[in-house]
Specification:
Order of helices and strands: HEEHEEEEEHEEHHEEEE
Pfam families: VldE (PF26571)
InterPro entries: ARB_07466-like_C
Strand content: 15-25%
Number of strands: 13
Keywords: Signal
Largest sheet: 6 strands, antiparallel
Number of domains: 2
Protein name: ARB-07466-like C-terminal domain-containing protein
Length: 239
Amino acid sequence: MKIQNLLTLASLAATTLAATNEPCIGSGGRAGVCVSTSTCSASGGTSISGACPGDAADIKCCTKASCSNGSSGNCRWQSDCAGTSVSNQCPGPAQMKCCSSTATGFGGYAAPKQPTVGTKCLAVSVAGAKKITDQFPGRVREIFCARDCACTSGSDHCCGKAVDLMCSDGGGVPTMSGREIAEWVMKNRSALNLKYVIWGQRIWNPSIDSELAWTSWRGMEDRGDITQNHWDHVHVSFK
């Protein structure tokens, strides 16, 4: 994840763009998807304003509280379903499905392989990743730290000072799981020696920001897909 300077970070808030068909938090705090109001209505969903900032006026956060998959059927991202999922009943892309359970289905993964200390993954990153995964057992599927690139490229990954904590069923698979992890990272910034944290197209930096709920973090530009917009992983950079 590239970062330029504090002025660039501050300017991101003014260019916030939600991405159509990507996650949002909608009516009643439910998992939703940013789609047109007509698409939402056609699917039997409910739209709310303000949860898909930066998009066209008719793109709003759509949720569907009830669908046909047992008595508890509800629309959510498949990666977060604690029961079975049924297609073609919910607004948005194919990964938004009718779940048979109201229970949170975050995680359930085997303990991820921890990175080893080296020039491409410094001790602060290894220690930070372990602290986070210890706090959230079963919630992180895989950890990425090192990248084969020059430290001068501007990416903290290239300097061994960042980790990506994959917290959905696969790369490019959206989840709402990262919010709790990202907010915990924010609250434990001192113990982690945190530089900044990103999840769900929002960024928090202790040098700039006060402690806030993720929904009030500064927004980032639309980078084009689920992974680049950080809907399948939490990015953590360390000092």
